[in-house]
Amino acid sequence: MNSTFASSSPVTYSDYFNDISQYNVHLNVFERAWAAWYAYMQNDVLATGIMSFMMHEIVYFGRCLPFMIMDKIPYFRRYKIQGQKMPTLSEQWACAKLVLLSHFTVELPQIWLFHPMSQYFGLSSTVPFPHWTTMAWQIALFFVLEDAWHYWLHRALHTPRLYKMIHKLHHQYSAPFGLAAEYASPLETMILAFGSVGIPIVFCAFTKNLHIMTMYLWIIGRLFQAIDAHSGYEFPWSLHHFLPFWAGADHHDVHHEKFLGNYSSSFRWWDAVMGTEAGSASDKKLREKKVAVKEE
Ligand SMILES: *[C@@H]1O[C@H](CO)[C@@H](O)[C@H](O)[C@H]1NC(C)=O
Ligand SMILES: [Zn+2]
Ligand SMILES: [Zn+2]
């Protein structure tokens, strides 16, 4: 391409960004970057696909990294819930390999369907973004709904047949670490991912009011939640100390250790109300026996 042409019509991403900035002074820098990306790609399916996949990889591995570094620093050992079981680097690498394999083989093709599907159900991908209050209440709603979905489906995955067929793989690590968050069979990924991706899409099908950006922020929040819950670290500054109903690693770590109880993802209320918070199968049998004795 010759330079006279390049100077008159946009070619590089920054050409598009500058052009859009010039004519859309009302947009903020993120909105300009977003619009420039779609204009530069000239193919919305590809633009959304690449952005979604990159976002997932960067957030997932980026969020795991600080925990992997902490594992190597003895000072942080005091915050480790199961301090006697430290994941080795080769264990973490084996885990990362399977996670990557499933990202490239199972998730990638589905991410490609995301744009057509979002068009069909009316998700918006235009600028400006929705007001932040709209994003905030929608994300809060998705957290609550996903948690309910996760509680019941995860609990179902712990019935003997489904456990052996599907969920056993996720429980390979009885002392979890961040990377183990998405270590699961493809079937489990699809069942549980419906809570994260399907619920917002169903919400949009009814309300016609959802932006892909809101969806991204929600997924990022959900990824942070899942990785923190598997990190194996409980800090004095962990979120549940400030939001008592937040689950966190304090809630999920024991689930991996004992294979029972604490089935929800983000919040504590489902396990509290359904009586699945307190521990082992023998506790449960004991409680049932007591109830049976009372009823006689
Ligand atoms: C469930 O989570 C609570 C904290 O919310 C924890 O005290 C308890 O040990 C956990 N029990 C199981 C079985 O995971
Ligand atoms: Zn489980
Ligand atoms: Zn888990």
UniProtKB/TrEMBL annotation:
<keyword id="KW-0503">Monooxygenase</keyword>
<dbReference type="GO" id="GO:0016020">
    <property type="term" value="C:membrane"/>
</dbReference>
<keyword id="KW-0472">Membrane</keyword>
<keyword id="KW-1133">Transmembrane helix</keyword>
<feature type="domain" description="Fatty acid hydroxylase">
    <location>
        <begin position="140"/>
        <end position="276"/>
    </location>
</feature>
<dbReference type="GO" id="GO:0008610">
    <property type="term" value="P:lipid biosynthetic process"/>
</dbReference>
<dbReference type="InterPro" id="IPR050307">
    <property type="entry name" value="Sterol_Desaturase_Related"/>
</dbReference>
<dbReference type="GO" id="GO:0004497">
    <property type="term" value="F:monooxygenase activity"/>
</dbReference>
<dbReference type="Pfam" id="PF04116">
    <property type="entry name" value="FA_hydroxylase"/>
</dbReference>
<dbReference type="GO" id="GO:0005506">
    <property type="term" value="F:iron ion binding"/>
</dbReference>
<feature type="transmembrane region" description="Helical">
    <location>
        <begin position="45"/>
        <end position="70"/>
    </location>
</feature>
<keyword id="KW-0560">Oxidoreductase</keyword>
<protein>
    <submittedName>
        <fullName>Methylsterol monooxygenase</fullName>
    </submittedName>
</protein>
<keyword id="KW-0812">Transmembrane</keyword>
<dbReference type="InterPro" id="IPR006694">
    <property type="entry name" value="Fatty_acid_hydroxylase"/>
</dbReference>
